[in-house]
Amino acid sequence: MYQTSLLASLSFLLATSQAQQVGTQTAETHPKLTTQKCTTAGGCTDQSTSIVLDANWRWLHTVDGYTNCYTGQEWDTSICTDGKTCAEKCALDGADYESTYGISTSGNALTMNFVTKSSQTNIGGRVYLLAADSDDTYELFKLKNQEFTFDVDVSNLPCGLNGALYFSEMDSDGGLSKYTTNKAGAKYGTGYCDTQCPHDIKFINGEANVQNWTASSTDKNAGTGHYGSCCNEMDIWEANSQATAFTPHVCEAKVEGQYRCEGTECGDGDNRYGGVCDKDGCDFNSYRMGNETFYGSNGSTIDTTKKFTVVTQFITADNTATGALTEIRRKYVQNDVVIENSYADYETLSKFNSITDDFCAAQKTLSGDTNDFKTKGGIARMGESFERGMVLVMSVWDDHAANALWLDSSYPTDADASKPGVKRGPCSTSSGVPSDVEANDADSSVIYSNIRYGDIGSTFNKTA
Ligand SMILES: *[C@@H]1O[C@H](CO)[C@@H](O)[C@H](O)[C@H]1NC(C)=O
Ligand SMILES: *[C@@H]1O[C@H](CO)[C@@H](O)[C@H](O)[C@H]1NC(C)=O
Ligand SMILES: *[C@@H]1O[C@H](CO)[C@@H](O)[C@H](O)[C@H]1NC(C)=O
Questions:
Q1: Is residue 463 in some structural domain?
Q2: Which residues fall within 8 angstroms of residue 85, CB to CB, at 6 or more apart?
Q3: What is the pLDDT of residues 295-314, one digit of tens each?
Q4: What is the best residue among 242, 292, 297, 298 to mutate for testing ligand 2's pocket, by most ligand atoms within 8 Å of CB?
Q5: Which residues are the signal sequence here (predicted)?
Q6: Domain extent for 436
Q7: Which of 19, 172, 423, 456 shows the smallest number of beta carbons within 10 Å?
Q8: Does residue 275 contact residue 196 with C-beta atoms inside 8 Å?
């Protein structure tokens, strides 16, 4: 990728004068974010982990100069004549996390601002957790028979924004060893993938996605190319102050790790269920499941005007790390009180407050949705992905495809809102339009903190 560039730019620097490089290139310094690993016997231990910004947000310029290879929505096709050439000629630069991207850390807390204005305007961001004391390897999470816990402050995230904390099955080195043309790797946040098989990724498999690149009609910083980047995804947390969901999404068995799709495999448009990954997932959103007072900013059980703790447990068939994943449980802790996830408030679902294959089947039947989660492998497939290891992703974004209405409003907007599964949150169907939120809610932000994981029951105080 841009990375050939990095090595090339280094040799260029040695071969010629250093002066050209100094002051213009930003050193990549990963903000430190302490996390904890916990065991039942030993308690929690600090890990000196850090975060890295995704490659798509970075300045991409020529190796031997500072001409942009990509600007706004467009590749410079005089440089990027094709994907391979582009990977040779273009370099990915370091990031100024706070001033350009509005991303900062302090101790165990990460703050991500929505809109950041410097010499340019940055919208949203996506970062990955690097392994302890490493600058070039993502931490790989293997969470079967384990739990994952973090604190979140969504009080400054209104309708239409999504503060998301989730896992994607990216390569731990960002694809560096698999694709020799990728010289940047995890140090520069390469290798993103998820179950939507996104086409807006600028470099996939060590090549620029320049073929048939098409500018977005609504996002002046994005476009889509011929290829998509697919992989298994576990959405621990997609939320704003009005609604939240946790959602496993899986892909066909052949999709192990990051997988470049093209054509029908990407599951685009009318072919949503014909691709290799399950784009719908199987979500548990308390509001959508009939409990409209469980989560929110107006006297709800979970009061989103204040920070709280989110606990997610990955239960296996035999309660070992090798058994098949069978259930994903959720608990919250706020004001020192442990709060079990709400139960679904529909007759055929009333015994469920967690995600299992039975819950997914009953929920899809009730809402009349296609159970593509089951078709693609169900919860056991999610477990296989966690057995190989997944990368932690934290982001904040607005939604140019559906205004985040699938999360916090009635969706589809033309469906009868009294039909089970249509209402997902209290936000208006006219909310979440990117041009509105980027103008009116520019100073929104989310804080993720106190990330800890390990044995079931070891990461939070049960008797608090
Ligand atoms: C690229 O776009 C052209 C015209 O828009 C289309 O005819 C062609 O099939 C596309 N090619 C690929 C590989 O997507
Ligand atoms: C908050 O809840 C109260 C009582 O249910 C209701 O009367 C009021 O309209 C709500 N306010 C908002 C902003 O939703
Ligand atoms: C919503 O969840 C809370 C907490 O579990 C519970 O007390 C309340 O009865 C639930 N409401 C509905 C309508 O299910």
A1: no
A2: 79
A3: 999 999 999 999 999 999 99
A4: 298
A5: 1-19
A6: 6-455
A7: 19
A8: no
